[in-house]
Amino acid sequence: MSDNKNTGLDFAMILASAVHDMKNSLSILMNAITVLEKKYPAKDDDDRKQHSVLQYEASRLNAALVQLLGLYKLRSEQLPLNLNYHIVEDFLYDQAAQYEPLAKSKGIDIEIEVEDELEGCFDVDLIASVINNILGNAIRYTTNKITLSSFYQEGIIIEVIDDGMGYPANMLEQQENFIKSINYSTGSTGLGLYFAGQIARLHTSGEQHGSIELLNKDQGQGGIFRLWLPE
Q1: What is the structure's pLDDT at 147?
Q2: CA atoms of 203 and 229, how far apart (whole Å)
Q3: Distance CA 51, CA 209 (A)
Q4: What three-state secondary structure class fits 165?
């Protein structure tokens, strides 16, 4: 039994090392893309759109690798939690800014609606990785607009709201285990949502744990990703 356990740990370490190497190579590729974009600036809207797609797909792959490394560190209890207070509106504007070029090239507006003077205590890097992943997916499926919303409700709630077709029924039904919502026809693995749920649970207050939830707006007018962090 112990041999099997050790084999599992060894495999996890090998996988983590491989992911780390891929992440380093991807970082070099992303830097090269940036250099090429500066050397050969876009001449028209089509060029700008292609540049945005390159950056988006590279960022999406990087996010997946970050999530895999994060899950390995969670399993081996090596993922630190750095809690600090942050102005939520500034935080959300920072996340939106990263996707503004791609959203603009697709004719998508990103709006931000936050309660005045709202602050939250969270690990800014981990929560940024969660919101970035959800926002990137929302851009793939929305029609015209994405809203980043945040308000207080016995803690901080952050929502990513799109106006697409909404979340499919199997994802809404498998919210206790997003990995089960794999859909090869759409490329959805559930990894991002599983990672988001694990990161949310790291944020605790007393016996309360952070959580995530998927909802659909009425009459199939879009989906809502909701992240709740206890105060």
Answers
A1: 96
A2: 6
A3: 40
A4: coil
Q: Cα separation of 228 and 159, whole Å? A: 9
User: Which tokens hold the place of 42?
Assistant: 């876009």
pTM: 0.79
End of a domain among 41, 75, 109?
A: 75
Cα(first)–Cα(last) distance of the chain, in Å?
A: 42
H or E segment and range at residue 224: strand 223-230
Domain boundary residue among 75, 107, 123? 75
pLDDT digits (tens, 9 = 90+) for 182-210: 554 444 557 788 889 999 999 999 899 99
Summary count for the chain: helices (H), strands (E)? 6, 9
Say if residue 66 is in the same domain as residue 169.
no
CB distance 128 to 96 below 8 Å: no
